[in-house]
Amino acid sequence: MRVALVGPPQSGKSSLFAAVAQAGGSGVDLSRPDQAHLAVVKVPDERLVWLADHYKPKKFTPAELEFLDLPGFDLSEEAGRSRARTHWSAMRQSDMIVLVVRDFPGDTVPAYRGRINAAGDIDEMVAEMVFADMDQVSSRLEKLRAAMKKPTSKKDEYAHEMALMERLLAALEAEKPMAEAVTTAAEEKLLRSFQFLSLKPTLVVVNCAENALEGPAPASAGARPVMRLSARIEQELAQLDPAEREVFLADLGIVSPARDRLIRGCYQQLNLVSFLTAGEDECRAWTIPAGTTAVVAAEEIHSDIARGFIRAETVAFADLQAAGDMKGAKAHGRIRLEGKTYPVADGDVINFRFNV
Ligand SMILES: Nc1nc2c(ncn2[C@@H]2O[C@H](COP(=O)(O)OP(=O)(O)O)[C@@H](O)[C@H]2O)c(=O)[nH]1
Ligand SMILES: [Mg+2]
């Protein structure tokens, strides 16, 4: 799964990317602001750390997400807009969007459009994404109209898609969420290949001064989740070693880096959960969509485990932690034997029993 960082120029995307990717050590070169950067990021998970403390495994494997840092979109001039369009497809191919806008003061960094206005920047970016989707819907409609004029055996199919596209266009024009115009799973599937920006989960990051971390969410963010953080502080934090980091955080009165909350927030917005496997060989977090059944989760590890599935020996992480270890969890009757159709919950620690 891939998360794209987008926003106006100089809003703090690359600083945030460096923090998320801990780019200090990863060798990502951020010196070219006109280039995109990609990093694979480990999803912080305290449960996995607890398991590893317990099992001292040979291998420790957290869940991963990809983050893509895109050059800023300068929509204030035509040249910038057409440059931005060259990055639309990278955005479309991402599964989620993090919209980064500036709210930190200061004259040393030139302000986009000569003013600092997080709400206005969100409005502008969202509008641009809506325009991009409208363009796509309109051109699809044109193609469908042309196709309908010719003799075709697909008339019904085309007519249905046209009706859907017209509803989408109406929703976009009325500034309503595009998702409201999608009524069936079949329609959702049909739309997947279009990769509409307005249908992607979006999280807003307001990059603010370190002494202004508390504050209201900009109204123009609408229903989108909003995080206030200081990208610069996060970048500095990411460059420290863990012990120094704790001192630094304590000085600032912060419990955990916003970086970790952002990555986990993305994971949540993507509707992903982790189940965990634990042992002396490996402690590992596996990524699945929320609601995935036990047999499909087993497939994630190995097709043999799904094929020969007998039972999923399952304990909720909190129960395991409270009991101290597996033996304790068993003694307290906390280990369940779940069947193939059991919907795996976030933080389930699972041992699959299988036979092939
Ligand atoms: N004061 C301050 N400066 C920041 C902050 N975040 C980024 N900057 C500065 O703003 C400039 C642009 O940041 P960058 O991350 O490259 O923005 P991008 O163009 O969105 O990738 C750089 O000079 C950063 O040091 C912040 O939270 N506070
Ligand atoms: Mg940048």
Report on the architecture of this protein.
The strands form three sheets. The chain has a six-stranded mixed beta sheet, with helices on both faces. It is α/β, with parallel strands linked by helices and 356 residues long. The longest helix has 32 residues. The chain has a domain of 64 residues: Beta-grasp domain (Ubiquitin-like (UB roll)), CATH 3.10.20. Guanosine-5'-diphosphate binds next to helix 1 and helix 9. The site of magnesium ion has 5 residues, from helix 1.
Topology:
Layout (H helix, E strand, L loop, with lengths): L1 E5 L6 H9 L1 H4 L10 E6 L3 H10 L3 E3 L2 E6 L8 H8 L2 H5 L3 E7 L15 H32 L5 H19 L11 H8 L9 E6 L18 E4 L1 H9 L2 H11 L5 H12 L2 E6 L4 E8 L4 H8 L1 H5 L1 E8 H7 L2 H6 L4 E3 L9 E7 L2
Parallel strand pairs: 1-4, 1-5, 3-9, 5-6, 6-7
Antiparallel strand pairs: 2-4, 8-9, 10-11, 10-12
Helix pairs in contact: 1-9, 6-7
Helix content: 40-55%
- Number of E strands: 12
Name of the CATH first level of one domain: Alpha Beta
Task: List the secondary-structure elements in sequence, H or E.
Answer: EHHEHEEHHEHHHEEHHHEEHHEHHEE
CATH superfamily label of one domain? Beta-grasp domain
Counting helices, strands and paired strands, the structural category is alpha/beta
Distance between the termini: 31 Å
Mean of residue pLDDT values: 93
Strand content: 15-25%
Largest sheet: 6 strands, mixed
The distinct bound ligands, ions and cofactors come out as:
guanosine-5'-diphosphate, magnesium ion
Helix count equals: 15
User: What is the CA-based Rg, rounded?
Assistant: 23 Å
Shape summary:
flat
CATH-defined fold name of one domain: Ubiquitin-like (UB roll)
Please identify, by name, the CATH architecture of one domain.
Roll
Strand order of the largest sheet: 2-4-1-5-6-7
Low-confidence stretches: none
